[in-house]
Every structure is written in C-alpha cells, then in structure tokens.
Design a protein that fits this description.
3 strands; binds zinc ion
Length: about 70
C-alpha cells in the first residue's frame, strides 16, 4: 500500500498514512486536532519508498519531482 502525505488546514499538521490506491481523503482525520479536512499533498511517494524497488528517484531524471512519476 502506498503511503500518502496529508496536511491539515486547521492546525497545519502534516502526517502520512497508508491507504489503498485510489482511496480518497474521506475518513482521514488529523492526528493532532482530529479534524477531517486534511488534504492529500502531492506525493512524497518516492521518498516513502526510498530504499525500495523504485529506481526513478535516484536515477537523475530531469530534477523535478513530477518527472518520471507515471503512476496515476
Ligand atoms: Zn489538524
């Protein structure tokens, strides 16, 4: 399961949770204030799997985070 980063607009807490692919923000609660308005951040997916099997993060690429991230 991928790890998603969320940010809470109420207290600005940032946290990461594991979710199934395609799952939305519904039901996601901020661990700091309990708010349910957390928004998914554009992904730190590559960082989350650092050391894993994905090779694009350290392959050089174009230097931009969006480059080479073909997953949807
Ligand atoms: Zn919060």
């Amino acid at each position: 399961m991928p790890l998603y980063e969320y940010a809470c607009p109420d207290c600005r807490e940032r946290f990461e949770i594991l979710q199934r692919m395609g799952e939305g923000a519904e039901g996601v609660r901020c661990p700091a204030c309990g708010g349910d308005r957390a928004e998914r951040q554009l992904s730190t997916f590559a960082a989350a799997v650092a050391g894993g099997s994905s090779g694009f993060a350290d392959s050089g690429g174009c230097g931009r985070p969006a480059c080479g991230t073909g997953f949807t």
